[in-house]
């Protein structure tokens, strides 16, 4: 690569007007060719930029934790929702269901049961009084014997 | 998306993310932590990553934002002493592995403003097109060119100064 071209590219480089291809020419020149003495001061820049790309990390990056965590949390909420839904469902379906007609019939039945109870109570009161009649009978027998 | 699928998608640009993180945060450990954090975030949002046309650019933007946030919170708290400790140990490392001139370039790059550092890293180290860099930085090509030119000139001027001292 002729010196004039390199100098021209260098000027454009510092103005930010070089293409990636131009910059590759510069990098190759300063890294691989015998650099002209007047340009030696620029050499470390391009050597440094090339060296910077070789840098790597040896650490092993992991994706471990968050995956299991998020999946577990998700399942917990699903399980909880299912249990609640099941509980409400069973409660709802085990309740006896009556139609309007049946409800009315049931109410009528309760009322008549109450009435019958009242009746039998009064009847019992009457039956209690009958013991006096019985007593009267035995006393009468004693007298008129 | 399966784990293996995700890894084959993300692993090719793992080193690019690491280098960018290290350029911004300087410390090797912090850069690795940052990449790990970005990977977890990407993995959590893996349904989205497939929708992006360019997962690499997306991951780089994410890394840049994360590192700048880290830097901000670090400056807010009192971790500066730890930070400068890291710097010296890093520089010793560099001096061993490269010659003094190259180490000098790295040192100068550390003194650049963050945006210029990021532009220089993406263009001169990773060779991205201006349009890609503009997208990654949510900026425009002209602004990228200006920042890049400034960064390159700062490095040049500092190197020439250093070179002339060396000669004289």
TrEMBL record, chain A:
Keywords: Membrane, Transmembrane, Transmembrane helix. The chain crosses the membrane at residues 73-93. This is Uncharacterized protein. It comes from Aequorivita vitellina.
From TrEMBL, chain B:
NCBIfam families: sigma70-ECF (TIGR02937). InterPro entries: RNA_pol_sigma-70-like, RNA_pol_sigma-70_dom, RNA_pol_sigma70_r2, RNA_pol_sigma70_r4_t2, RNA_pol_sigma_r2, RNA_pol_sigma_r3/r4-like, WH-like_DNA-bd_sf. It comes from the Bacteria. Belongs to the sigma-70 factor family. ECF subfamily. GO terms for molecular function: DNA binding; sigma factor activity. The lineage of its organism: Bacteria, Pseudomonadati, Bacteroidota, Flavobacteriia, Flavobacteriales. Residues 9-75 form the RNA polymerase sigma-70 region domain. This is RNA polymerase sigma factor. Keywords: DNA-binding, Sigma factor, Transcription, Transcription regulation. It holds the Pfam family Sigma70_r4_2. One of its GO terms (biological process) is DNA-templated transcription initiation. Residues 107-154 form the RNA polymerase sigma factor 70 region 4 type domain.
